[in-house]
Amino acid sequence: MAKASKKFKPVSESELKTLVQKYSTSSAEYYSSKLSEERKKVMEYYHGEKPAPSHAGNSKYVSMDVFDAVESLKAVLLETFSAGNKIVSFDPQSDADVEPMRVATEYADYVVFRQNDAYGIFSSIIQDGLMARTGIAKVWWDECYEEQEEEFSDIDVDSLEMLSSQEDIENVDAEHDPETGLFSGTLTRKIDKSQVRYVPVAPEEFLITSTAPSIHEAHFVAHKTRKTRSELISMGYDKDLVYGIGNSDDDEVSMSPERLARFEDIGTGMVNLEEDQDSEQTEHVIVTEAYMPIDMDGSGVAKLWKITMGGTDTILDKEQVDRKPFICFTPLPLPHAFYGGNYAARVIPTQNARTVLVRGILDHTVITNNPRLMVVKGAVQNPKELLENRVGGLVNVSRPDGIIPLQQSGLNPFVFQTIQLLDEDKEEVTGVSRLSQGLNKDAVSKQNSQAMVNDMVSLSQQREKIVARNFANHFIKELYLEVYRLVLLNEKKPKVIRIAGNFVQVDPTEWAEEVTCTVELKLGYNEQQQEAMKYLTIHSTLAADPGNARLYNEQNRYAVFKTALEKTGIKQVNQFLTDPSTLGAPQPDPFKVQEMQLESRKVAVQESVAQTSAKKTDDHAQIEMLKLQLEKMQMQMEQVLRNREVDVKQFTAESNAALHTQELHLVEKEMEQNPPQTQAVIRT
Question: 490-509 pLDDT, tens per residue?
């Protein structure tokens, strides 16, 4: 037979109030005892109020060892983390995630350092961690809108309907013009200013179960703060519920020991000045924002709920959430415990001892310069002259040996040696050495090389580096992951932000749901410079070998120089380097272009000279050929002339012969026709 499942009752509102009140009270009792008194004591030593003088009239000198230890380490951590040197980067899961993760890292830097006051918040968190064991920050998505009134004129009905249908338009007040049929009026535009916010939480306002190992594993975590009723109404809570909150529990936060000690140096009257309110609207009430697992519906499975309660009997809101919005920094963590060691409290014995020794030196100096006197009875005529103790004053005595200074013991010769031992003890306790601050003249001298001094400084910063890594891994890393998660869940529209001088579109919908991040920590400028030099050395090595031309191309060189500049803290890298991938085809070197032009001109001149020379040679050859042809033609003409002369002579001779023959024939013919009368002798 199957066993019937156990049934649970839903949690009623009265039971919910009881649970929140019970855990708040138990946590508050733990705070108001040892932890709260410790914080008060540390604050008094930090302000130099303790140790108080043991006797009236003694020196009131107070050694500020607690202040010096806290501020020295805070300065190192702030210089390291508040400069925005890209300490955290999101890891791409594939090649397609490289660019989205780069943009996500830049956008997270934008949220942490530009949308919020990173310097002020980090300063408060670090100081709380060093003085109150842990520093707490609250991270959440703040939905806020800004209303802006605008005017419109002369639009038709369709445009008015389209304008009214927009999501960010409210309170459209339009007037119709019957002559033109158009509309004019005003509207309210609702501008979304929602963003990720993170603020420091005062130590006395944060509640957690005393045995919790961490925030995530704690059964109960709460933020107990003071709000005015007007602030609660502006946050969206019901007006009737807000004015039904009692204020009987108000002194629990405002009069806590550490809060009183925080304002002690300016007067305790400043603490309660805000309590005298002029109206009920500005009256302060206690608001507890509690996070605890509750089986609200009786299903048998407890889920994380956020319960907002005003005073001790009014539940303002309850909401199921997926995580607690708190992250913490613990400088000296202890295993299996939420609260670690108190850094500042460890310096209190040094401040007590050093104060006593220095006061002894000062008191001894005062007594030596103004000793107590032994006076013979009746030797001083007017004792008032001796009691006034004026500088250069006169004392009338009846005998010269009537006033004798009491003999004082000398100053202990080991006092100054003990003070030096206390300085060394302070360095060992805090981990902040004089060498790391550049105050050790013996180490920072001309006898030691720069490299040796740098090595000594680096070794002296080991404890500081551990505290810095605790801040980086437990606070900064968690902060970036929470910023990533909140942006991914709530940022639905792309944004355009300016990153390194360029406007980049950020679309969180393209980001991966699961992400990891890497923390890269460099403590101080020296290590940053050394890291940059590594990349410059890589460039020198690769560029020196011509065989690496294919392996080490223009894009690789750009990446090396870009990383080296970023390591030195330069953000606007694009002002000094241009990404080769954005250039397109490479432009020729102007000097080389001029050289090529000169060479081409030289070649052209040489070709022209060669052509001219060749042409001259050809012309000379042609001339010679023409001369030969002319001579040949002349010879031919002369031959023709000679031939013609011969022909003419021959023709003339032949013609003469023919003519003579013809004449003879004519004569003979005539003689035959007309014979002569007398015989004549013909002579030939």
Answer: 888 888 877 656 777 888 88
Please tell me the predicted confidence (pLDDT) of residue 325: 94
Q: What are phi and psi of 442, to 5 degrees?
A: -70, -35
| Residue pair 137/121 in contact by the 8 Å Cβ criterion | yes
The DSSP 8-state label assigned to residue 380 in this structure reads B
- AA letter at 421: L
543 contacts: CB under 8 Å, gap ≥ 6: 552, 557
Rounded percentage of the chain residues whose pLDDT exceeds 90: 19
Question: What average pLDDT is seen over the chain?
Answer: 80
CB 227 within 8 A of CB 243: no
Strand partners, 174: 185
Phi, psi (degrees; rounded to nearest 5) at 148: -130, 125
CA distance 468 to 76: 9
Rounded to whole angstroms, how far apart are CA atoms 103 and 109?
Answer: 10
- CA dist 472 and 466 (Å) reads 10
Which is it for the CA torsion 20, 22, 28, 31, positive or negative?
Answer: negative
Q: Are 434 and 440 in contact (CB under 8 A)?
A: yes
Q: Specify the pLDDT at position 455.
A: 47
Cα–Cα distance measured from residue 592 to residue 199, given in angstroms and rounded to the nearest whole number: 59
- Give the whole-angstrom CA distance, residue 418 versus residue 676: 191
CA distance 486 to 141: 6
Using CB atoms within 10 Å of the CB of residue 413, give its burial: 0 to 12 exposed, 13 to 18 middle, 19+ buried.
exposed
DSSP for 1-51, written as a single string:
-PPPPPP-PPPPHHHHHHHHHHHHHHHHHHIIIIIHHHHHHHHHHHTT--S
DSSP SS3 for 447: coil
In the chain, % helix, strand, coil (3-state, to 5) comes to 50, 15, 35
Range 245-251 contact pairs with CB under 8 angstroms and sequence separation of 24 or more = 245/285, 245/310, 245/311, 245/314, 246/285, 246/311, 246/312, 246/313, 246/314, 247/283, 247/284, 247/285, 247/286, 247/311, 248/311, 248/312, 249/286, 249/311, 249/312, 250/226, 250/275, 250/284, 250/285, 250/286
Phi and psi torsions of 147, nearest 5°: -95, 130
How many Å apart are CA 142 and CA 23, to the nearest integer?
A: 27
Q: Which residue has the tokens 């609260």?
A: 339
**What pLDDT score was predicted for residue 682?**
41
Residue 655 and residue 661: Cα distance in Å, rounded?
Answer: 9
Which residues 6+ apart lie within 8 Å of 316 measured at CB?
A: 232, 237, 238, 241, 242, 287, 308, 309, 310
CA angle in degrees (0–180, nearest 5) for 330-338-523 = 15
Closest CA to 558 of 581, 541, 587: 581
C-alpha 402/C-alpha 400 separation (Å) is: 6
> Distance between CA atoms of 254 and 286, rounded to whole angstroms?
10
* CA pseudo-torsion sign 70, 75, 80, 85: positive
Better-scored residue on pLDDT, 539 or 222: 222
pLDDT digits (tens, 9 = 90+) for 529-559: 777 778 788 888 888 777 777 778 878 888 8
DSSP assignment of 166-181, as one string? Answer: STTEEEEEEEE-TTT-
Supply 439's token pair: 């105050």
For the cut 50, the answer to whether the pLDDT of residue 446 exceeds it is no
Q: Give the residue, 196 or 272, on which the prediction is more confident.
A: 196
pLDDT digits 0-9 by tens, 278-336: 577 788 888 999 999 998 888 888 899 999 998 888 889 899 999 999 999 999 999 99
DSSP state of 72: H
